[in-house]
Design a protein that fits this description.
Layout (H helix, E strand, L loop, with lengths): L8 H4 L8 H20 L8 E5 L7 E3 L15 E3 L15 H13 L5 E5 L2 H8 L9 H6 L3 E4 L11 H8 L4 E4 L3 E6 L2 H21 L10 H15 L6 H14 L6
Parallel strand pairs: 5-6
Antiparallel strand pairs: 1-2, 1-4, 2-3, 4-7, 6-7
Helix pairs in contact: 2-9, 3-6, 4-7, 7-9
């Protein structure tokens, strides 16, 4: 079986001096994920963010350099920051305060929030702007139906005082629809977060595409509950998302291996 580590051992041999191997592994994962987002068309110019906590006792995490396109992100140019936004790595690039603030809130207060992802995809924003929110009328939405939280729009996410309200909205649900804004997910591992966001994005895409066709075929409550339980049983656990991430790593590595630099 393929694992998340498939393409990484050779790159680990090139770990730069002054960076711990565990941090370099995290940098490789995160840089690859930015390239996957770009391949899937989830980049938003130079905006939006994926953050990943650096292994260790400190609450440090990695973030994209503000000003670079996702296709330009590499393992070495990712920015390391602490929970107060202080830069801990030598970088000519700043961080985006609007991206740092909600990510730091989740990293600080949710023990399981090792990875946080946020997108402004067209389908995700369309559903976020819909009064109905995500409808449980397709394959992916049914799997996620007990895992989705909603947070009301408060404007650009620059203000730390929104943090407690965001946390109250999220609770323990790892898929979040930011109303009038976009999608956000968090999880214990990057592959888990990636799979959750992929499924949420697909659910939104199908809902938006089907809207022009009129009323959707409803999914009965018994079937919906069965989908939730099946997804938890077959997709849950530590390995969740690893095969998807490994496959996409191989894909982006064939296209452009500079993410490992």
């Amino acid at each position: 079986m393929n694992t998340v580590h498939d393409p990484l051992p050779a790159a680990l041999a090139a770990c730069p001096s002054g960076i711990a191997p565990t941090e370099w592994q995290a940098r490789l994962q995160l840089a690859a994920c930015y390239r996957i987002f770009d391949f899937w068309g989830w980049s938003e110019g130079i905006y939006n963010h994926i953050s990943l906590r650096v292994p260790g006792p400190e609450h440090h995490f990695l973030l994209n350099p503000f000003g670079l396109h996702y296709s330009e992100v590499t393992a070495s140019n990712l920015v390391k920051v602490d929970l107060d936004g202080r830069l801990l790595s030598d970088s000519p690039w700043p961080i985006n305060p609007a991206g740092f603030t909600p990510h730091a809130t989740l990293h600080r207060h949710l023990a399981g929030a090792q990875c946080v992802m946020h997108t402004h995809t067209t389908a995700g924003m369309a559903v976020a702007c819909s009064a109905r929110g995500l409808e449980t009328t397709n394959f992916y939405a049914a799997q996620l139906s007990d895992r989705v939280a909603y947070h009301d729009f408060e404007g650009i996410t620059l203000h730390a005082d929104e943090g407690p309200r965001l946390l109250a909205s999220v609770g323990e649900r790892q898929a979040v629809i930011l109303r009038n804004h976009g999608l956000l997910v968090w999880s214990e591992t990057l592959p888990k977060a990636l799979y959750t966001l992929w499924a949420l994005q697909r659910a939104c895409e199908v809902q938006v595409a089907g809207a022009a066709l009129g009323p959707c075929q409803p999914i009965g409550e018994t079937v919906r509950q069965g989908c939730v339980e099946d997804a938890r049983r077959f997709l849950g656990g530590a390995a969740m998302g690893q095969d998807l991430f490994a496959a996409m790593l191989r894909r982006i590595d064939r296209l452009d291996p500079t993410w490992k630099q």
